């Protein structure tokens, strides 16, 4: 389960939005699990990603700084590097 949560968090950072659930909300599906999240650009240049898995209590809150991602996913501390920085077009939508 931990691997799935970390994988989902990484996918949220790396994949473009595939659908809009509501204003500012985005979603994607990976391995049959759907995740809904929001992106919030911060004044310090970082981006906050907050979301949850649809149909469960699994939540995540990640801060992206360049290629560095850290935060909480399903109650666990996570930290990893993305293969590329979060694009400014994605962060500002």
Show the helix and strand layout.
Layout: H1 2-14, E1 25-30, E2 33-41, E3 47-53, E4 59-65, E5 68-73, E6 76-81, H2 88-92
Antiparallel strand pairs: 1-2, 2-3, 3-4, 4-5, 5-6
Features of this protein?
alpha+beta; six-stranded antiparallel β-sheet; 2 helices; 19% helix
Please explain how this structure is put together.
With 93 residues, the chain is of the alpha+beta class. It has one domain. The protein contains two helices and six strands, in the order αββββββα. A six-stranded antiparallel beta sheet has the order 1-2-3-4-5-6. It starts with a helix and ends with a helix.
Proportion of β residues? 35-45%
Helix count equals 2
Q: What's the number of structural domains?
A: 1
Question: Topology as H/E string?
Answer: HEEEEEEH
Q: How far is the N terminus from the C terminus?
A: 30 Å
The biggest beta sheet reads: 6 strands, antiparallel
Helix content: 10-25%
Using the CA coordinates, give the radius of gyration.
12 Å
Mean pLDDT: 79
Strand order of the largest sheet: 1-2-3-4-5-6
**Unreliable stretches:** 16-22
Q: What structural class do the secondary elements suggest?
A: alpha+beta
- C-alpha geometry: globular
Number of strands: 6
